[in-house]
Design a protein that fits this description.
The complex is a heterodimer of chains A (about 110) and B (about 110). Chain A has about 110 residues and is mainly beta. Chain A contains no helices and eleven strands. In chain A, the strands form two sheets. In chain A, strands 2, 4, 5, 9, 10 and 11 form a six-stranded mixed beta sheet that branches. Chain A has a five-stranded antiparallel beta sheet with strand order 1-3-8-7-6, with no helix packed on it. Chain A is globular, with a radius of gyration of 14 Å. With about 110 residues, chain B is mostly beta strands.
Chain lengths: ~110, ~110
C-alpha cells in the first residue's frame, strides 16, 4: 500500500517568517495530494490540494508544490500568523482505490509572536 | 456547509466493555470513514463504507467492527475494549463520483479505556 512520510514532526517559526513541510510518497499511481489543518479540539480540515497534472498551486499565503518524478510534495506557508499554529497533515490518494487517503504522521506548527 | 457530527467528544470505558461510536453526516455522502489518530502515527484508516450496508477493512481493522444501516450514519464498534484502543477517533465523509476528493471530518471522540 501507499506509504507517506512527513517531515519535520514539529516546526517553530517566528511570526512573519515562512514555514515549509515536506512529504514523500511511495505509490507512483497516487495523483491526488491534499493538505489538512487540524486546530486544537477540531477535526482536520482541507486547506489546499494538488493533482498530478500541475506542479504548483497557490492560495493566498499557502502554496503546494509537487515533484512527481521524485515523489515528493511540499506545503509552504508565507508570512505566518498566530492562527497558523496547528497540526498539518499531508496525504496521498489515487483513483484505483476511489481516493482513499494515506496520511503522513503530521507536523505541529507553532508560530511565535 | 457539510456537517459531520460524532456522538461524544470524550468517552471513558472499562476494559472488556462494548463501545459504540456514532457518526452522522448531513450531506448525503456515499462514503464514510473511521480513522484512529495517535501521536507520531498520523491518521490510520480503520474501516470505510461506500454505501449502505457496505463496508471494507482499512489498514488497522483488528478489534473493530462497523455498521451502516442508513446512509447518513456510520457506527464504529469495539466489541471488547482494550487499553491499546485508547485513542482519538475521527469520522469523515466524502461524496461519490470521479470528482469528489475532499473528506470532511467530525470533531473527534477521545476514548480512554481503563
Amino acid at each position: 500500500g501507499e506509504n507517506v512520510e512527513q517531515h519535520p514532526s514539529t516546526l517553530s517559526v517566528q511570526e512573519g517568517d515562512s514555514a515549509v513541510i515536506k512529504c514523500t510518497y511511495s505509490d507512483s499511481a497516487s495523483n491526488y495530494f491534499p493538505w489538512y489543518k487540524q486546530e486544537l479540539g477540531k477535526g482536520p480540515q482541507l486547506i489546499i490540494d494538488i493533482r498530478s497534472n500541475v506542479g504548483e498551486k497557490k492560495d493566498q499565503r499557502i502554496a503546494v508544490t509537487l515533484n512527481k518524478t521524485a515523489k515528493h510534495f511540499s506545503l509552504h506557508i508565507t508570512e505566518t500568523q498566530p492562527e497558523d499554529s496547528a497540526v498539518y497533515f499531508c496525504a496521498a490518494g489515487h483513483p484505483f482505490n476511489d481516493y482513499k487517503l494515506s496520511f503522513g504522521a503530521g507536523t505541529t506548527v507553532t508560530v511565535r509572536a | 456547509d457539510v456537517k459531520v457530527t460524532q456522538s461524544s467528544r470524550y468517552l471513558v470505558k472499562r476494559t472488556g466493555e462494548k463501545v459504540f461510536l456514532e457518526c452522522v453526516q448531513d450531506m448525503d455522502h456515499e462514503n464514510m470513514f473511521w480513522y484512529r489518530q495517535d501521536p507520531g502515527l498520523g491518521l490510520r484508516l480503520i474501516y470505510f463504507s461506500y454505501d449502505v450496508k457496505m463496508k471494507e477493512k482499512g489498514d488497522i481493522p483488528e478489534g473493530y467492527s462497523v455498521s451502516r444501516e442508513k446512509k447518513e450514519r456510520f457506527s464504529l464498534i469495539l466489541e471488547s475494549a482494550s487499553t491499546n484502543q485508547t485513542s482519538m477517533y475521527l469520522c469523515a465523509s466524502k461524496g461519490g463520483g470521479s470528482y469528489s476528493y475532499e473528506q470532511y471530518f467530525g470533531p473527534g471522540t477521545r476514548l480512554t479505556v481503563t
